[in-house]
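Reminder to self: keep the SMILES exactly as supplied, no canonicalising. Ligand is pyridoxal-5'-phosphate.
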Amino acid sequence: MSTSPCKYSTLAVHAGQYPDPLTGAVNVPVYLSSTFELTGIGTDRGWDYSRAGNPTRDRLEEALAALEGGTSAHAFTTGMAAISALVAMLRAGDHLICSKDVYAGTVRLFDRIVSGYGIEIEYVDTSNLEAVAAAIRPSTKLIHIETPSNPLMVLTDIAGVSQIAHARGIEVSVDNTFLSPVLQSPLALGADIVMHSTTKYLNGHSDGLGGALIGSTPEHKERFLLVQKAAGGVMSPFECFLVLRGIKTLPLRIKQHEENGRAVAEFLSTHPKVNKLAYPGLKSNPQYDLAVKQQKGFGSMMSFEVESREAAGRFLAAIKIFLSAESLGGVESLASHSATTTHGSVSEEVRASMGITQGRIRLSIGIEDKEDLIADLEQALAAV
Ligand SMILES: Cc1ncc(COP(=O)(O)O)c(C=O)c1O
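Structure tokens returned for the bound complex:
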């Protein structure tokens, strides 16, 4: 079935998710087979070994490429495995620019593993285009940005960075995890590669880990297929099925996440115990215009500060509907203490340079009733 001229919600249900040619099954079958019968010496039916390719994974990759408008997609075991595959294309002596305020797991990977391969990593405030241009060296090969960033919701102008990078022959990759392909299309804005932790909104139910890279050129396809086959961190067929199932309701879920996110942000924006609310969907946010320009919505991630670590602890102990847990993008609302969860793996000094204090709490707003969520926050803030 061709889905090329279809609108987004139709793509989400049908791209890559056509009936099984063998049985007519409406859902993509889970091909739990590590190996496939060969038809002769050096010939097969399209698959020979699941690390190189699996029919269930193929369908997920087809769906992801369609949702991001890419030429190919490649599914990995986790978001971190996808970022590892992304930087596997770099060589000793290459220079990598990365957004300063990123998921700390990315910093851990870059500083403790990737830098050991002789790749130079530089963290830059990519929300400042002049700083990006100034950081470029002759050896710069890739600019990796996270927008909105985790947890401070700092935006980077994707089109602006792409323009600067392309003028110098440098590629741009975007971690699009926080908004999902429904609310932001980095490739259409000029980026070269999109990265996702499918663990979050794409799966949407907090029941599986996964990651993906979506490329925009035949070279990306060749390169990422090689990394899948050679390094082997591929998503399992069952996890692929869970993401395929999640994708069918992604536009619908995002609509509710988004509506709830706006309501919760408005409530928090006037609460006396809430400081430094980071949510680009408020007109008072300095990056509101950029959010409107490059995003199709504001998403449902936000963070704020209470006065101390102890106050954050009282808040997290008092929530009843929100769960105190790491991760994001699932149907359930989560709250997390940034300094000891997502950013627990970097030093206090690095956290301070990022602007993450001991009082910062990140919220992932789920799809429950928004009035219940606000009532829960209200009673928990009363305990602070
Ligand atoms: C923005 C972002 N990118 C990447 C990752 C890593 O994804 P995973 O946990 O699937 O490895 C995370 C995880 O929280 C994230 O928030």
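Points to follow up:
The domain at 251-382 is CATH 3.90.1150.10 (Aspartate Aminotransferase, domain 1).
The pocket of pyridoxal-5'-phosphate is lined by residues 78-80, 103, 105, 146, 150, 175, 177-178, 197, 199, 209, 211, 327 (CB under 6 Å).
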